[in-house]
Structures are given as C-alpha cells and as structure tokens.
C-alpha cells in the first residue's frame, strides 16, 4: 500500500516534516504503578516493628552459615544424582526395547506423580519396611543407622529430580538432527559413542537453561528436608526464633542468604549457557554484565539524536 503525501501549501517545492516521537502512555502508567507499589512496600517495612539490628547480627551467626552450607551441599548431591539418573532414563526412554522404555516411563510416572514431601517421608521411614540392610556374609546393619536424614534427603531429592531431568535431557536429544547420529555411526562409532561425543554436546544448549532453573529450584526445595531432621538454614532459623520470638527478622536473614546463593548460581548458569551457545546459532551471544555496562557508558556508544 503506497501512501502519498501532498504539500500543505500549494506550490511549495518541499515540505519540512516534523518527527514526533511516539508516546508510550501505557508504559508510563505501568512504571508509575510499579513505583507506587515499591514506595508502599518500603513504607510498610519502615513502619513495621522489625529490629534491623537483629537482622544484621544474625547474618553472621555460624549456625545459619552452616545451615546454608548444608542446603548447598544437599543441592549439589541431589542434582548430581538427578543428572545421572536423568541422562540414563532419557536414553532408556528413547530405546526401541519396550521393556527398557517401559521401566523408564514407570520411574518417571511414579516420581513425578507423587509430592516430593511424601517421597522424603517414605525414604526416611524405609526402616519400617527393611529394618536390616546388608550383603549376606559380608555386611549387615540396621537401616535406621545407615539411612541418616541427610542420606535420605539426598536420595529422595535426587530420585525426584531425575524424573524431571530425564524429560529435559530427552527433549535436548530429540532437538539434535538424526543425521548427526547416522553420520557418527557411518564413521564407525557405536551408538553409545555417538551419544556421548556427538549428540549430547550439541543438546547441551537446549538442556542447560531448564537444568539451571532446576538447580535453583532444588536449592529452595531443600527446605523441605527439615521435615526429616536435616539441619538446613530454615530449620536452624526456626529453632532460634522459637526462643527469641524474632520471627520476621530470622526469616529476612534466611531470605538474604537464599538470594545470595541463587544470585551466584544464576551467574554460573548465565556463563554456562553462553559457553554452549558458541557456534550453535547465528544469533549474537548475550552480553555479559560488564559488556552491558561498557555499551551504556562506553565511549563508542551511539549518540542519541
């Protein structure tokens, strides 16, 4: 569709057009609403009877620092187990053997279909079903002594995570063209070698973002482990505020530690995604925080006109 413009004054050789910037009224209204909400939230916290000196004092309490360390360790162990089981289960799901794929589907169905809180309680009380564990002639011991709260939480969270990770890994594998596998087998690679050397490295750019989110989610899910006696940061904070009645102050301390840990994990996820995105797409790599600051305040930025 052609749009023709006529001079406003007849006989004029040219017309000076005045460029008027587009006004985004909705954006300004939305921004004003957000600012008002933040002001209201800040005033509410300021008027609340929160002892900020107590918050500052308990930020450095050793027992809470140890609690966030337990949460991070539990996250690392559970995610390692979940990633291992996720990769194995994803490969089993893609198998043409109906028994192998059926077992993998059953595992995913059970652990995705029941709450993680329920699974933790069942693992912790496994001694009610198997009171004794061991290898005949070599070792024998009570299940209640072997399955400590931390081990039970690690197994429960890891098995639950493996069910979710398997679907993420499977989607990443399916995103790689089948011709890659055929080409690898044509040069003499086995299916396992092709999966390890060709398919999985290319699938990582699809797998990393959701798995990174799962790691962050796992860190917060570890708070459920307090139900079976794991002394992570939230349970330790509860033990303290049951005594001094500084409930909100201790919860703010936990929030600060969780936000700090999640921020570090998010930075690691960003650089990991950026690493696996190299050469995988024609899109430009996302800028790092330093590159963004340089583009805004650097000397080479374009002048606005």
What are its keywords?
305 residues; mainly alpha; two-stranded antiparallel ribbon; 2 strands; 68% helix; disordered C terminus
Structure description:
The chain has 305 residues and is mainly alpha-helical. The protein is built from 12 helices and 2 strands. It has helices at 25-47, 52-58, 62-93, 98-113, 116-124, 143-146, 149-174, 178-186, 191-221, 233-244, 247-276, 289-297; strands at residues 132-135, 139-142. Strands 1-2 form a two-stranded antiparallel ribbon.
SSE topology string: HHHHHEEHHHHHHH
C-alpha geometry: flat
Write down the overall mean pLDDT: 84
* Major β-sheet annotation: 2 strands, antiparallel
β-strand percent reads under 5%
How many helix segments? 12
Distance between the termini: 29 Å
Helix content: 55-70%
Number of strands: 2
Fold topology:
Blueprint: H1 25-47, H2 52-58, H3 62-93, H4 98-113, H5 116-124, E1 132-135, E2 139-142, H6 143-146, H7 149-174, H8 178-186, H9 191-221, H10 233-244, H11 247-276, H12 289-297
Antiparallel strand pairs: 1-2
Helix pairs in contact: 2-11, 3-4, 3-7, 3-9, 3-10, 3-11, 4-7, 5-7, 7-9, 8-9, 9-11, 10-11
Report a brief summary of the structure:
With about 300 residues, this protein is mainly α.
């Amino acid at each position: 569709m052609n749009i023709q413009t006529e001079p406003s004054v007849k006989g004029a050789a040219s017309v000076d057009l005045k460029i008027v910037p587009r006004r985004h009224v909705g954006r300004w209204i939305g921004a004003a609403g957000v600012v008002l909400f933040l002001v209201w939230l800040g005033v509410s916290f300021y008027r609340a009877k929160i002892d900020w000196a107590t918050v500052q004092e308990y930020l450095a309490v050793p027992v809470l620092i140890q609690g966030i360390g337990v949460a991070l360790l539990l996250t690392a162990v559970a995610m390692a187990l979940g990633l291992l089981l996720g990769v194995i289960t994803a490969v089993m799901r893609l198998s043409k053997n109906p028994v192998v794929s059926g077992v993998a589907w059953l595992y995913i169905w059970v652990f995705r279909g029941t709450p993680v809180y329920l699974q933790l309680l069942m693992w912790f009380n496994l001694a009610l079903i198997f009171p004794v564990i061991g290898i005949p002639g070599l070792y024998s011991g009570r299940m209640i002594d072997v399955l400590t709260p931390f081990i039970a939480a690690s197994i429960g969270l890891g098995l639950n995570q493996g069910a979710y990770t398997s679907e993420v890994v499977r989607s990443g594998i399916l995103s790689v063209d089948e011709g890659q596998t055929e080409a690898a087998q044509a040069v003499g690679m086995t299916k396992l070698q092709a999966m390890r050397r060709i398919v999985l490295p290319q699938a990582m750019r699809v797998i990393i973002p959701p798995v990174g989110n799962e790691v962050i989610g796992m860190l917060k899910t570890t708070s459920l482990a307090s139900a079976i006696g794991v002394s992570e940061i939230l349970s330790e904070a509860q033990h303290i505020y049951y005594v001094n009645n500084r409930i909100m102050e201790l919860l703010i301390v936990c929030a600060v530690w969780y936000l700090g840990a999640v921020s570090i994990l998010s930075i690691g996820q960003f650089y990991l995604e950026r690493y696996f995105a190299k050469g995988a797409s024609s899109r430009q790599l996302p800028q790092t925080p330093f590159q963004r600051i340089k583009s805004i305040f650097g000397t080479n930025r374009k002048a606005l006109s």
